[in-house]
Specification:
This protein is mainly α. It is built from 10 helices and 2 strands.
């Protein structure tokens, strides 16, 4: 019996076929390896891009104007005292806790009254104060140029302002008869509370030696979010409370309750973002 190897040409054909199969398998393996490497490189690149994007998002709060500044390990001591400009700025921003009419009187009523007084003094220098008063109140017609300006002011500006303010107060009183706020339910304001002067936005320097919650807040807000810049931290703290007190949800509150709730909301909101190195005011102003 003759085996396959003894047949002419059978062995060479088998060896050639085996080499072809090995070549095909090798080429398939190389192709699969290339595809796998390509997929792996794509996945690696996508992961690297996601990591870079996440790092940018995490470091966004750590970037201050001027470049990235490392977080200090310790909280710097609070300034010994504030300047007069800083105290006046804090008082001016605290007015947002007042009612709308009171804010309007401070913002526009006082400047308009100062302008009217300046016009009265200017006209009184050229004639007697009684003539200016009679022209200002439209009792007498102006007989010279210096009396025309107070006469026009008394004719147009003063009645419009008085009528507008009085109409607003009356409308507010009428609308509040059946529209009591839930914050005012079962409460009684004493005369001491009514006559108590309005409060001011808290000074962060007092938090340095305050309660544990206050120290934790000032550590996150000043050291982490503002890199120990006490002046910038105080400025942004006042801006946040000022804008919060100006929103509609605090409009029905009295001046003390408005400031207190705006301060508590600022504590809860800012301490979370500050611990991640981000200041909301810095982000909005960038």
């Amino acid at each position: 019996m003759v085996g396959p190897s003894s047949m002419p040409g059978t062995g060479q054909h088998g060896n050639g076929q085996g080499r072809a199969d090995d070549t095909v398998l090798r080429s398939i393996g190389v192709s699969l390896t290339g595809v796998a490497e390509s997929k792996l490189s794509n996945v690696t690149g996508a992961c690297a891009a996601q990591v870079t994007c996440a790092q940018r998002v995490m470091n966004r709060g750590k970037l201050l104007p001027g470049g990235p500044i490392p977080i200090p390990p310790d909280l710097k001591l609070a300034p010994a005292k504030n300047t007069l400009r800083a105290r006046l700025r804090r008082s001016w921003r605290s007015r947002k806790a007042l009612k709308g009419v009171t804010q309007w009187v401070i913002d526009w009523g006082v400047p308009l009254a100062a302008g009217a007084i300046a016009v009265y003094i200017y006209a009184a220098r050229t004639t007697s104060p009684s003539h200016v008063y009679r022209a200002f109140t439209l009792i007498d017609a102006p007989d010279r140029f210096a009396l025309w300006l107070p006469s026009i002011v008394g004719w147009l500006l003063v009645p419009a302002i008085i009528g507008g303010v009085a109409g607003h107060i009356i409308a507010q009183r009428i609308s509040s008869v059946k529209a009591i706020s839930t914050e005012k339910l079962f409460r009684q304001r004493t005369w001491g509370q009514r006559l108590k002067p309005p409060g001011l936005i808290p000074d962060l320097r007092t938090y340095f030696h305050g309660s544990y919650a206050q120290q934790n807040f000032v550590d996150a807000w000043v050291r982490i979010a503002h890199r120990n810049d006490w002046h910038r931290a105080q400025d942004h703290w006042e801006v946040f409370i000022r804008d919060m007190a100006s929103t509609q949800q605090y409009a029905h509150l009295d001046r003390h309750e408005c400031l207190r709730q705006a301060r508590d909301t600022a504590h809860l909101t800012l301490v979370i973002t500050a611990q991640t190195g981000m200041c909301i005011v810095c982000e909005r102003r960038r």
